[in-house]
Design goal:
142 residues; alpha+beta; Aspartate Aminotransferase, domain 1
């Protein structure tokens, strides 16, 4: 049986999704992040799955044969933190991460408790750099 990704772009309105967020602080942070990512990427967002706002898209294929589509940059307003998805990874961003402010990292995720905790100039620079860099697996695309 072929693998079908659960996280795909939907027709759900991104602004309506963000307006439905119950936590006012998370909603305000998400609206601000949405505006920043629109500006940095020059693209309109799409809701991927049930709660990830993504910008851009690319197709990937791994050596294992697994393939799919994903967004280049995105975020999810999770309860514990704003989760920013940076598909290009963070290997080339150590200089910026050191100046960003309190955060945690996952493989392709940047976790911020509050958007206001991040240095705005550094966050913009990090997202701009990520938007310009192809995701690592993009080299393996078909």
């Amino acid at each position: 049986m072929a693998y079908t990704a659960k996280t795909r772009p939907t027709a759900t309105d991104v602004d309506a999704f963000l307006a439905s967020l119950k936590d006012e602080g998370r909603r305000k942070d998400s609206v601000a992040l949405l505006a920043l990512l629109r500006e940095v990427t020059g693209q309109e967002p799409k809701l991927w799955g049930e709660g990830m706002v993504g910008f851009g898209a690319y197709h990937y294929r791994y050596a294992s044969g697994h393939e799919g589509d994903s967004f280049v940059l995105g975020f999810a307003p999770r309860k514990a933190a704003l989760t920013l998805y940076v598909m290009a990874g963070f290997e080339r961003m150590a200089d910026l991460l050191g100046k960003l402010g309190p955060h945690k990292l996952g493989k392709g995720c940047l976790y911020l408790k509050r958007l206001g905790d991040a240095d705005p100039t550094t966050l913009r620079a990090l997202l701009t750099r990520a938007a310009a860099a192809p995701p690592p697996s993009a080299a393996d695309t078909v």
